[in-house]
Write a structure and sequence with these properties.
This protein is of the alpha+beta class. The protein has 15 helices and 24 strands. The longest helix is centred in the first third of the chain and has 14 residues.
């Protein structure tokens, strides 16, 4: 699913990005958190030129952004997916990669939800090779081209061959071989610091899992996420949240207080017939406009919300991604999943988890329920909150913005549990219960 997403949902993710995985092993009830997020380049001493600032919109909110070679960090997806397979996979590697190769050859129809977002973020996407990928000829449009719309075919020239190289030889060609060298060359030509030393030095890391009790469950998630999800769970007034209504909405809003931020990600989760689970969240940012062999270089160094301290070459960048497993008191698996949406990952997952674990809602209902997000002292609400809940938020001293419709802004959750699987309708997600598979 991760690799196929790198061909089919490339306004969210790609081989040039990075991510995190949380794996639950049924045999010993252990949880493993793998870090294959992007790393800061510059190990050879190169320093990037200034990035190019642009402006994109997320919903009705215009935000600053940066693109170009200076925003490209060291990619982790090629090594990360290969390491996941090496440690936990059972099928032959080439068989795992084959669906992604097929999609890259044929292209994929763009869902309506993705097409709507593409209009907003086009300034970051329709650059260089992205012009051919994300737009189509239209004599009536400015410049003779229009961005892709619902049902149009998204396809990246050269990507199928790159994925086939990954299937045949593993991550080597993409990191230290011809494909990796050409990506480095394109980045450096455009003023970036990425080097072959950065690419060859990159390694997947395992992180300790943090734990936080939520009702009958224990949330198991990496503990170094930028938005401190485990600490948020620990600080939540669970009694008020469980009761729901006005007091419950205020309790959730207070637990989620934080600054406004942004980013685009994709999240997938699968549970097999033996009860093993794997949740992965990965991202490209929006992309840098730098391409090689169908691979779009990430723009993580242009993501302002990730830049929260010194950038030391070779170190991992921080992230809000938190794929997770939720276990019962004896270590049995209750839930597995994650979310996309940058700073909306934390509120989206918290609300889904409390709906399931504290209020007894089913997975599908919990994922589809109206959602809130908090930015500073402003609470953003999807339609569906009662008037008394809105009044309670205002009485608590919070500003309230009510959105007219459900939006991708509020995050995209994928979750598997004992009563089934669910994928977020806000982002065109799809769930397949018979195979215990859910995608963003």
């Amino acid at each position: 699913m991760v690799l196929t997403g790198c061909a089919a949902e490339t306004i969210f993710c790609g081989l040039g990005g990075g991510g995190f995985a949380t794996v639950y092993r049924c045999a010993d009830r252990s949880v493993h958190c793998l870090d294959f997020f992007v790393a800061v380049p510059g190990l050879d001493g190169t320093r990037a030129r200034p990035a190019r600032d642009i402006s994109v919109a997320f919903g009705d909110v215009s935000v600053p952004y940066a693109v170009g070679g200076a925003t490209v960090a060291v990619p982790g997806v090629p090594r990360g997916t290969f390491e996941l397979h090496r440690r936990f996979g059972r099928l032959p590697w080439a068989e795992v990669v084959a669906p992604a190769v097929r999609v890259a050859h044929t292209g994929a129809a763009l869902p309506a939800e993705h097409a709507a977002l593409l209009v907003d973020v086009a300034p970051a996407m329709v650059l260089c090779d992205g012009v051919a990928a994300y737009s189509a000829p239209d004599p009536t449009a400015p410049g003779g081209r229009r961005v892709l719309g619902p049902g149009d075919i998204l396809r990246h020239s050269g990507l199928a061959d790159t994925l086939q190289a990954l299937a045949d030889e593993g991550p080597g060609p993409l990191m230290t071989g011809e494909i990796g060298r050409d990506l480095v060359s394109a980045v450096r030509t455009d003023g970036g610091a990425l080097s072959m030393l950065d690419m060859s030095s990159y390694r997947v890391a395992e992180l300790p899992a943090a734990s936080a009790r939520l009702g009958p469950g224990v949330v198991r998630v990496r503990g170094n996420d930028l938005d401190h999800f485990a600490a948020t769970v620990a600080a939540l007034d669970q009694s008020a949240a469980a009761a729901g209504g006005p007091a419950g909405v205020v309790a959730v809003a207070r637990a989620l207080a934080g600054a406004a931020a942004r980013t685009s990600t994709t999240s997938v989760v699968a549970v097999d017939a033996d009860g093993n689970a794997c949740a992965v969240t990965h991202s490209l940012g929006l992309g840098s406009g730098v391409w090689a062999h169908g691979v779009h270089g990430n723009s993580m160094l242009g993501e302002g919300e990730l830049l929260r301290g010194a950038l030391t070459p070779g170190q991992r960048m921080g992230s809000m991604m938190i794929p997770m497993a939720v276990t019962g008191p004896s270590g049995d698996l209750l839930l597995a999943g994650g979310a996309a949406g940058g700073s909306r990952i934390r509120p989206a997952l918290l609300q889904v988890l409390l709906s399931v674990l504290l209020r007894g809602a089913g997975i599908e209902m919990a994922v589809s329920a109206p959602r809130l997000s908090v930015a500073g002292d402003t609470v953003h609400l999807e339609p569906g909150f009662a008037a008394a809940e809105v009044a309670a938020l205002r009485s608590a001293g919070l500003s309230v913005t009510q959105w007219p419709r459900r939006q991708p802004y509020f995050g995209g959750v994928s979750m598997a549990g004992r009563d089934g699987v669910a994928a977020d309708p806000r982002r065109g997600g799809a769930a397949f219960g018979a195979d215990q598979v859910a995608t963003r």
